[in-house]
Amino acid sequence: MASVETAAEHERILREIESTDTNCIGPTLRSVYDGREHGLFMEKLDVRIRNHDREIEKMCNHHFQGFVDSITELLKVRGEAQKLKSQVTETNRRLQDDGKELMGSMEELQLCRVQQRNIATTIDKLTHCLPVLEMYSRLQEQMRAKRYYPALRTLEQLEHTCLPRAGQYRFCSIMAENIPKLRIQIRDTAMTQLRDFLESIRKHSDKIGETAIKQAQLQRSLDSSVSTQPRALIGRRSRKEAAAATDSGGHGGSPVSEQDSGILDVEDEEEDDEVPGAQDLVDFSPVYRCLHIYTVLGLRDVFENYYRKQRRKQARLVLQPHSNMHETLEGYRQYFNQIVGFFVVEDHVLHTTQGLVNRAYVEELWELALSKLIAALRTHSSYCDNPDLVLDLKNLIVLFADTLQGYGFPVSQLFDMLLEMREQYGEILLKKWNITFRQVLDQDNFSPIPVSTEQEYKHYTSQFPLQDPELDKLPFPKKLPFSEFVPKVYCQLKEFIYACLKYSEDLHLSSTEVDDMIRKSTNVLLTRTLSHCLHYAIKKKNVGLAELVQVIINTTHLEQCCHFLEEFISNITNVPPDTANATKLYGTSTFKDARHAAEEEIYTNLNAKIDQFLQLADYDWMAAGQGGGTLEASDYLVDLIAFLKSTFSVFTNLPGTPVQHATLPGKVAQTACMSACKHISTSLMQLLLDPEVRQISVGALHQLNTDVKECEGFARAGPVAGFQGDTLLLAFSDLRQLLELFTQWDWTTYLADYGKPTCKYLRVSPHTALALLEKMRETSRKNNVFAQFRKTDRDRQKLIDTIIKQLRNLIAQHHA
């Protein structure tokens, strides 16, 4: 049963293979390979192939005889066709041989007729075409010679006159077609030359500007030597304008010479012995040539717009400074040269062309340039901290402004900017002189200058106006009262004034304005820079008393020389010092303030040193009173008095005449001595009334009284000359009256005479007495704990309580 089904399946597969497209036979074959009867299927397939081969063989045998018969008939037809071909070929050969002579004669006749007609036509047309060819040949020569303006004229004549007469010929059509192309070629060539020209002047604008600035500088020197000599630049420009009027007299007319159009005659200028102008470095013929060509082409507006647009772009490039321009003067110089070169070219084009650029356009460019130039200079000059570079920059700007002013450009804004830069220059000078003054102060030894010879004495007096007849009479060697600081500072002040004067030159300012600027700058130097330096030297650490005293002497001499500085400024500015509204120098107040600061520093340092000694004070506030022995002053106070004596001896040993001692160091010494005594008295009073000291014995008061007597002895000895009577003792009067009141226990007199001008204890305040008395009461209470049965102690305690009560009543009455 299985074999029957397998045979049926194989039969079905074979039918599918025979009837199915070969592209879809894949699934059928796959089913054969998936089954297990592959060998049996192959046998059936071989049988089926053999059956088909037998059928094909039978069919071929059946049709073979008809095929053979057809081939035989075809061979017979081929033979007949070959015979027919041979007959036709022979007939054609005989016909050709018979008509050859006739055809030759006819061709010769036709050729002669055509030649006759062509010769007649050619002769007729050549009479019309030769002028066209000659004109075109001339055009080609002009194009090769780059004479584009005549070539345009030839094109117009060829197009409107010659070509219409010549007729419709191919070469005429080619020529007519080439005419617009030639116009475009001429226009593009002229534009290319213009672009090359614009690129050239952009690259060489710095050279053009450099030449123009040199010429302006030369003209300035000539004007300063011969004020009546006319400006060569103006004369040259007049000639250039006249030449331009001749060369470009009309828009439609041809220039006198294609190559010389707009070119200045350098040889003529050299014959006049003049320096060639900056315009002589540039060949402006491409501009004029392109202007004429575009005018002939009817594109003048296009050319003008293009030229102005390109020059505006170049202006923006020229006005863009380099980022490091502020580092060197050469960077500024190159920047200015490019700007000058740009506007020299525009000025020349303005005066040598008719309407290519106008005055409004040039002024618009100048306004743009001026705003960007000023902004760039403000930005880059703010980075500069070298006064010499700022001064050189100012001179360069002045030369730049004078150069462009010679070409008619307004430059007032540049001079206004220079006045603004004057403030910056002044600040840079102040910084430089601040360093200089500090170096002078740091190098100074704060000692009088020793002079051993007349030459040295003259050297110092030439640097500083010292006027001291008494010192002149003293023999050598001698000492000048001031230190090296004074002549050095005076010379530096004069150098500063010179530096200010240099900046004010060539700014077109009046002498009064220059004088006012110098005085104001000098005042700032005195009141700010020098004043700060002096205070720096005074407040510096480790400054001794002798140095401070020398500072006072130095500032006094500098103060006395202020009127010499006034005269010095007046001499260099030619402005009398008594001119109305003239600014006065503030040197006097500056040096007075510095001297007062030095004096205050002396007092402060002296009091600080006194405080160091007072910190060593170690009073036994509970000390018992000594029987009949003599108390000695405290060790710290003895050392303090010795220090003060040696300190004030410095004032008496200062160099100079007695008059100087009386006027300068004497007053300082008196004030310092009085300040020291007051400070000692106040400090001892504070020790006595210190809230931390709650108990004070009579013995402690006696010890303090002894110390005060030691101080009074110092005051009576007159450590500093100049005090009248016992003036110095007044510094201790408050403390003296308080101690006498308590040591003598004279309360009856105090309470009875309080408030009267003749009161013995006028300087003792009830508050002070009450505070000290309460400290003594605390001491009495502590001592009476074990001695409360002594009648004298009880009476003393009662007396203290009574006095305290009376003092409080006195204070209450005083407040009421």
TrEMBL record:
<dbReference type="GO" id="GO:0006886">
    <property type="term" value="P:intracellular protein transport"/>
</dbReference>
<dbReference type="Pfam" id="PF20651">
    <property type="entry name" value="EXOC6_Sec15_N"/>
</dbReference>
<dbReference type="InterPro" id="IPR042045">
    <property type="entry name" value="EXOC6/Sec15_C_dom1"/>
</dbReference>
<dbReference type="InterPro" id="IPR048359">
    <property type="entry name" value="EXOC6_Sec15_N"/>
</dbReference>
<dbReference type="Pfam" id="PF04091">
    <property type="entry name" value="Sec15_C"/>
</dbReference>
<dbReference type="InterPro" id="IPR007225">
    <property type="entry name" value="EXOC6/Sec15"/>
</dbReference>
<feature type="compositionally biased region" description="Polar residues">
    <location>
        <begin position="219"/>
        <end position="230"/>
    </location>
</feature>
<feature type="domain" description="Exocyst complex component EXOC6/Sec15 N-terminal">
    <location>
        <begin position="44"/>
        <end position="213"/>
    </location>
</feature>
<dbReference type="InterPro" id="IPR042044">
    <property type="entry name" value="EXOC6PINT-1/Sec15/Tip20_C_dom2"/>
</dbReference>
<keyword id="KW-0268">Exocytosis</keyword>
<dbReference type="GO" id="GO:0005886">
    <property type="term" value="C:plasma membrane"/>
</dbReference>
<comment type="similarity">
    <text>Belongs to the SEC15 family.</text>
</comment>
<keyword id="KW-0813">Transport</keyword>
<dbReference type="InterPro" id="IPR046361">
    <property type="entry name" value="EXOC6/Sec15_C"/>
</dbReference>
<feature type="domain" description="Exocyst complex subunit EXOC6/Sec15 C-terminal">
    <location>
        <begin position="413"/>
        <end position="775"/>
    </location>
</feature>
<dbReference type="GO" id="GO:0006893">
    <property type="term" value="P:Golgi to plasma membrane transport"/>
</dbReference>
<comment type="function">
    <text>Component of the exocyst complex involved in the docking of exocytic vesicles with fusion sites on the plasma membrane.</text>
</comment>
<protein>
    <recommendedName>
        <fullName>Exocyst complex component</fullName>
    </recommendedName>
</protein>
<dbReference type="GO" id="GO:0000145">
    <property type="term" value="C:exocyst"/>
</dbReference>
<feature type="region of interest" description="Disordered">
    <location>
        <begin position="219"/>
        <end position="260"/>
    </location>
</feature>
<dbReference type="GO" id="GO:0090522">
    <property type="term" value="P:vesicle tethering involved in exocytosis"/>
</dbReference>
